[in-house]
Amino acid sequence: MDKPKILVVNDDANSLFALTNLLGQWAAQEGYEVVAARSGEDALREVLMHDFAVILLDVNMPGMDGFETAEAIHQRPRSADIPIIFITAFVADELDRLKAYQRGAVDFLFTPVIPQMLYAKISVFVALATKNEELRRQARQLSQRTTDLIASNQRLLREIEERKTAERASHAKDEFLAMLGHELRNPLSAISSAASLIGLPGVPADSVGHAKKIIQRQSRHLGRIVDDLLDLSRAMSGKILLNRAPLDLAALLNTALETFHATGRLADYDLRADIAPCWVHGDATRLEQVFCNLLDNALKYTAPGGRIEVICDVDDDELTLSIHDSGVGIPAELLPQVFDVFVQGTSTLDRAQGGLGIGLALVRRLVELHGGTVLADSAGPGEGSTFTVHLPCIEHVNESKVPLMETSEQSKPAVLLVEDNDDGREMMAMMLSCYGYPVQHAADGFQGLATAAAARPDIALVDIGLPGIDGYEVARRMRANPDTHHIKLIALTGYGLADDQRRVMDAGFDMHLVKPVDVDQLLRAITECLASSPAAVRT
């Protein structure tokens, strides 16, 4: 802590010397410093630079006298409270004393100064300044301690909240993984049982046919689960790729509803649909996914016999799609979180329809990618829910149909299948052969190149993850070889991110199909690929 300072102001050099030396005798004992000034102006400069415990100020000075100097010192807020003791050789009358006190004086000393009196007076002010500085130091320490405690408390509260958030996220993920295991085991169990049934002797033909349909249906269900997981990863990493084009959304919604009706999903519900003609610039697959996820959500949380309303309207170049249900509703505390990943309400219904609880998170991301918004609303438990999607719409567009290739027996194109998975390769080759396609196949990249150069097929279906050289290198080498550069190439792969599609097209492929691919999708892709000259991308 700095020592208290005493300022002595006197224009007479001898008087100034005498006073400073007298004060200097007690400086070490009392713990203060002495500063000297020869004029009022010098005193003001010192006051600007230092704080003083007391000022000994000569009254009679040329230029700026003691009264004027005192008044100037006390006009400055920082020095307004410095005590000033006037020193004068004349006996001050009552008017002089009044004038001095009005200028901020606390006392008078008359010359010649009596040392004991001077010591008594200045020691009081030095002690007072020391005590005030100590109080200020304690106040600063207390303020700093308070600030530190507040910061520590805020940090502790943040850590507690972060821990709670992490625990909630961990619990939600644990529930998600448990649900995923349940969702995977159900179709796998059905597929395993159906496959075993087909292999039993003496099984009726209709039972075999029914078992095959079960395998197909449950395989598609597994494919949807994998797609949901991949979409979740893409949504969280921001790598969802949209294939946007003018789209008749009303036709898409009606087709989706027909599919739900055909599968019997809506048989036990009172459905009302009011869909106005509307066009958007969007990805048909993704917007169908948005609608199906919202409708699935309504079915999941509405008991059979409940009401579901689908309303689509257009106003001021904006499309509004609402799906309302009379189901279990959404609690107020859950409503702001329904679109978050891993958040799922507790259903009071049988969850026979399944699901991973990530559908609404995907809905929000897909809608936002289309430049729209999605909102959830509910009056509370038992009051049903309403999900509303807002999308920018466009004017009606005349669709241009892609001419499909004639697929008579004589015109079926030759196909080369390059796939390292033996079971997958064998089944796809058999499936294409059943539809009349001449098929040759290869188990790795080098064998695929050799077969392509020798057989010159019309189209090659190439897996990306091949041993030896991968599918990208196979495509690059086929494009570089004059004997095979004309062959249409479709990538068959489990990789479906935007970067994967870009790498596929950069390598020279014409199309990109993500496994699993059903037969209808594969046949349609082959036809469209051979019918179109420019490269296209499919997911």
Automatic annotation (TrEMBL):
It is an enzyme of class 2 (transferase). It catalyses: ATP + protein L-histidine = ADP + protein N-phospho-L-histidine. It is a multi-pass membrane protein. GO terms for molecular function: phosphorelay sensor kinase activity. Residues 125-152 form a coiled coil. Its main location: membrane. Keywords: Coiled coil, Kinase, Phosphoprotein, Transferase. CDD domains: HATPase (cd00075), HisKA (cd00082), REC_2_DhkD-like (cd17580). Pfam families: HATPase_c, HisKA, Response_reg. Its EC number is 2.7.13.3. The modification 4-aspartylphosphate is found at D58, D463. PROSITE patterns: HIS_KIN, RESPONSE_REGULATORY. InterPro entries: CheY-like_superfamily, HATPase_C_sf, HATPase_dom, His_kinase_dom, HisK_dim/P_dom, HisK_dim/P_sf, Sig_transdc_His_kin-like_C, Sig_transdc_resp-reg_receiver. It is found in: Cell inner membrane. It comes from the Bacteria. This is histidine kinase.
